């Protein structure tokens, strides 16, 4: 039994088409009445199409069949196969020239396409074999690519961090200088006795707004350093009592009627902290308590050991407490208490959390008895 392969069937079909298509065209043209000298262009188009689609040899076969059909049916004397004049030779040259040129070019394109398809199949097969036989190597290569990308991202982040530091330094210099000048001059003017009440009131307003703007600038710069990772800590053993005493004294200058209660013996423990940052933590918490606590009530600072290697510090005030709707976003930026929304920058607690976490500690609002608000934070014991 003879088995014909698919490729062989396709070749036979192509050759049959090269013969049948000109024959069908001839049958159609015999039924029309257009000028017969134009038929050659139609056959040439058929030959060119076959050349583009199937290549050189089918085009040559179609050209030969087309020439024979044109010569037999449409060239005088009709119904004879003769080459009577130069026009027949020209027709023959045109047919085979068209088939040769177009077929050659199309054949090269088709061969290139076949080679490309073959290469694509080989690449797919090779890739499948590589994935199947070398999964570990492929995973290692992917890990290497991810590592390279990570290193690139780290470099970009380091560059961005340096640019941010430069920007912060520029902002600090360019804004602090005019704000400091406004604050200094307005304060000096207030010390002058020869000033009417209206002018004094306005200058006091200028000084107050300058202090507020200076505090907002300082808070924004602090938060930017924390969030960008540009915060640098000098960690050393610090006595909690010393930090509490210094912060209480600073609060006393700003709010003379407010007292801070704390036990020096209880606070006589040492933590591993940056002195300036720890002072800022206490300043923010004491300032927050001072703004929300009723006048005349004290603020309590309590120190104790609760977790191994950790010192727990609580700042307690007798304020109205924190509404339940605000508890989840209390440490977010620009969140202010509803009863005192006009005071402060709304950044104090966000900065405090960033500073505490930079010390590998944690901070939270504790549930307490009614009439008390307690912020608890931890620091590593030195």
Question: How would you describe this structure to a colleague?
Answer:
This protein is an alpha+beta fold and 382 residues long. The protein has 3 domains: 6-131, no CATH class; 158-228; 236-380, Heat Shock Protein 90 (2-Layer Sandwich). Helices cover 62% and strands 10% of the residues. The chain is built from 9 helices and 7 strands. The chain has helices spanning 6-29, 39-54, 56-73, 86-133, 135-190, 197-228, 240-254, 275-292, 348-358; strands at residues 236-239, 260-262, 270-273, 299-305, 310-317, 363-366, 373-380. It has a 5-stranded mixed beta sheet with strand order 2-4-5-7-6. Helix 2 packs parallel to helix 4 (86-133) and helix 5 (135-190) runs antiparallel to helix 6 (197-228). The chain starts with 5 loop residues before the first helix and ends with a strand. The mean pLDDT is 79.
Compute the number of strand runs.
Answer: 7
- Round the mean pLDDT to the nearest integer and report it: 79
The CATH homology group name of the largest domain: Histidine kinase-like ATPase, C-terminal domain
What global shape is seen? elongated
Tell me the Rg in angstroms: 46 Å
Largest sheet: 5 strands, mixed
Would you tell me which CATH topology of the largest domain applies?
A: Heat Shock Protein 90
Q: Gap between N and C termini, in Å?
A: 94 Å
* Number of continuous helical runs: 9
SSE arrangement, N to C: HHHHHHEHEEHEEHEE
Structural class assignment: alpha+beta
Which class of the largest domain in CATH terms?
Alpha Beta
Strand-residue proportion: 5-15%
> How many separate domains?
3
**Spans where pLDDT lies below 50 across 5 or more residues:** none
CATH architecture tag of the largest domain: 2-Layer Sandwich
Strand line-up of the largest beta sheet: 2-4-5-7-6
């Amino acid at each position: 039994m003879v088995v014909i392969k698919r490729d062989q069937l396709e070749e036979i079909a192509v050759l049959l088409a090269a013969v049948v298509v000109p024959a069908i065209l001839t049958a159609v043209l015999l039924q029309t009445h257009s000028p017969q000298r134009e038929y050659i262009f139609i056959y040439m188009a058929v030959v060119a199409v076959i050349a583009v689609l199937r290549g050189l040899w089918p085009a040559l076969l179609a050209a030969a069949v087309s020439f024979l059909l044109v010569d037999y049916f449409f060239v005088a004397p009709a119904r004879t196969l003769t080459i009577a004049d130069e026009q027949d030779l020209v027709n023959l040259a045109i047919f085979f020239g068209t088939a040769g040129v177009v077929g050659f070019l199309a054949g090269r394109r088709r061969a290139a396409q076949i080679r490309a398809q073959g290469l694509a199949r080989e690449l797919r097969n090779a890739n499948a074999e590589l994935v199947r036989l070398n999964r570990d190597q492929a995973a290692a290569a992917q890990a290497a690519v991810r590592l390279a990308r990570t290193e690139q991202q780290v470099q970009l982040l380091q560059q961005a961090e340096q640019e941010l530091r430069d920007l912060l330094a520029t902002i600090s210099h360019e804004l602090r200088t005019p704000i400091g000048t406004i604050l200094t001059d307005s304060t000096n003017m207030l010390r002058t006795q020869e000033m009417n009440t209206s002018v004094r009131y306005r200058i006091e307003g200028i000084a107050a707004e300058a202090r507020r703007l200076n505090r907002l600038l300082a808070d924004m710069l602090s938060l930017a350093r924390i969030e960008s990772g540009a915060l640098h800590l000098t960690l050393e053993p610090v006595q909690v009592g010393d930090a509490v005493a210094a912060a209480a004294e600073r609060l006393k200058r700003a709010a003379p009627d407010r007292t801070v209660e704390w036990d020096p013996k209880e606070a006589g423990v040492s933590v591993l902290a940056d002195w300036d940052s720890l002072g800022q933590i206490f300043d923010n918490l004491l300032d927050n308590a001072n703004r929300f606590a009723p006048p005349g009530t004290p603020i309590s600072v309590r120190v104790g050991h609760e977790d191994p290697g950790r010192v727990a510090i609580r700042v307690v005030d007798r304020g109205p407490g924190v509404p339940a709707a605000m508890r989840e976003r209390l440490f977010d930026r620009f969140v202010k208490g509803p009863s005192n929304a006009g005071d402060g920058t709304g950044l104090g607690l966000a900065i405090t959390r960033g500073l505490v976490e930079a010390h590998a500690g944690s901070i939270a609002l504790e549930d307490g008895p009614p009439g008390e608000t307690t912020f608890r934070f931890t620091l590593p014991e030195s």
